[in-house]
Amino acid sequence: MYSFENREMDAYFQSLPALIQHSIIMCDLKPRTLEELKTLAETMTGEAKQ
Q1: Is the pTM of this model over 0.70?
Q2: How many Cβ atoms from other residues are within 10 Å of residue 38's Cβ?
Q3: In whole angstroms, what is the distance from residue 16 CA to residue 24 CA?
Q4: Residue 46 burial (C-beta neighbours within 10 Å; 0-12, 13-18, 19+)
Q5: Tens-binned pLDDT, residue by residue, of the chain (50 aa)
Q6: How many other CB atoms sit within 10 Å of the CB of residue 4?
């Protein structure tokens, strides 16, 4: 199981659908902040604010 050291980031990551979690792991991007992680997940789900 993939996890982040930051508890907030880890909790957010674990709340994402499995497909998005897998995509984040496979794209090999390492978000450093919760905001970066949220932006990445929103972009992958098509929910990014335009």
Answers
A1: yes
A2: 17
A3: 10
A4: exposed
A5: 688 889 999 999 999 999 999 999 998 888 999 999 999 999 988 875 55
A6: 17
